[in-house]
Amino acid sequence: MLNLYYRLYQAVFRVITALIPFNFPIVIAGEDATLEVAPLIKNKLKFSRLLLVTDPQLTKINLYGALLTHLESHNITITVYDKTQANPTLDNIEEALG
Question: Residues of the chain whose pLDDT is less than 50?
Answer without folding.
Answer: none
